[in-house]
Amino acid sequence: QVQLVESGGGLVQAGGSLKLSCVVSGRTFSTSGMGWFRQAPGKEREIVARIGWTGDSTYYADSVKGRFTISRDNAKNTVTLQMNSLKPEDTAVYYCAATNYGGLVITSTLYNSWGQGTQVTVSS
């Protein structure tokens, strides 16, 4: 049974930081591309960041570039998203997702395993 379990969400003031973690079980983590997505109320789910199998290849949405950092630890089956300089517009439910594709995958439909999501709320 594949499980992706996110943690680390919460309420933070604008300018603050949060670190999201996602622990993966039930699939081969070292050959899974990993992504973080978010969905705000009334909006479509969007890619936030993505990291390749080895961690050498990353992608960031323009809205978070320079503020967020994605990383992975294949020994611990964990992917993290460090979020700094948070803004109210970062408020959303954040989802961890895994894909079998090794290339630059930023389309949610190509991810076949998803976590339940963790709420991030940034107050102004």
What do these coordinates show?
By secondary structure, the protein is an all-beta fold. 0% of the residues lie in helices and 49% in strands. The protein has strands spanning 3-7, 10-13, 18-25, 33-39, 46-51, 58-60, 68-73, 78-83, 92-99, 113-114, 118-123. The strands form two sheets. Strands 2, 4, 5, 6, 9, 10 and 11 form a seven-stranded mixed sheet that branches. A hairpin with a 6-residue loop joins strand 5 (46-51) and strand 6. It is globular and about 40 Å long. The N and C termini lie far apart (40 Å). The mean pLDDT is 95.
Approximate helicity band: under 10%
The average pLDDT is 95
Oligomer: single chain
> Helices and strands, in N-to-C order?
EEEEEEEEEEE
Report the count of strand segments: 11
Distance between the termini: 40 Å
Assign the structural class, choosing from mainly alpha, mainly beta, alpha/beta, alpha+beta, or little secondary structure: mainly beta
Rg from alpha-carbon coordinates = 13 Å
Low-confidence stretches: none
Sheet with the most strands, sense and barrel status: 7 strands, mixed
Strand content: over 45%
